[in-house]
Amino acid sequence: MTTTGGLPPQPIAAAAAAVATAPWPLFDLFLDVPHPAASAPAAPPLLVGSPATTPSLHEELHKNVPQMARFAFPEYEATTPPDPRVNVNKYDVYAMQPTAFQNFTFSLQLSDGTRMHGHVRRVLPSHAIATTRYDVGRRAERALILLTRATGADLLYSAILKYVCSDTDCPESICLYKTVPILCCYADLPVLLFLLRSTWYGRSIEAITSQQMALSKSLWPHDEPQKWFLDQLFRHQQYLAQMYSTKPLEERGKPLVANITGVEVGLSPLYTKVDTSRFIFPTCLLHRVSVSDPSASQSTSILPLIRCVGVVHALRIMAALLSERRIIMVSSSPTRLAFCSHSALGMLAQGLLHWQHLYIPVMPPHLWQYLAAPYPYLIGILSSTVSKLDRTDGLGEVLMIHLDSNQMETRGMDTATIASRLPDLFHSQDLVPKGGAASVSELLAQDLVEVLKSDKKVLHGESTLAQMGETAAKASKAVKKTFFKLRDKGRDLLAKRSNSGVEGDEGELTVLADGPAETNTLAADYIYTEGCHNEVSEEDVRIAFTTFFLCTFGDMRWYLSAAPGQPPKLDRNRFLQQKRSVGEGEGTPMWPLLQNFCQTQMLEEFSKARMEEVRTRQPVTPDAPLFTQCANYNRQHNVDFGLLNVRRVTRQVAQANPARMTAMLQTNARRMAMALTSNKSFEGDTSRAIAQLVEQCRESTSILFDVMSVVWLRIRDSKGMQWKHAFQALQILRNLLYHGPLAAIAEATDGLEKIRALKFYDHMRVQVTQEVRTAAGHVFELLVDRARLFNIRRACAERRRTLQSAGPKVRHWSFFATPCLSVS
Question: How far is the C-alpha of 324 from the C-alpha of 348, rounded, in Å?
Answer without folding.
Answer: 12
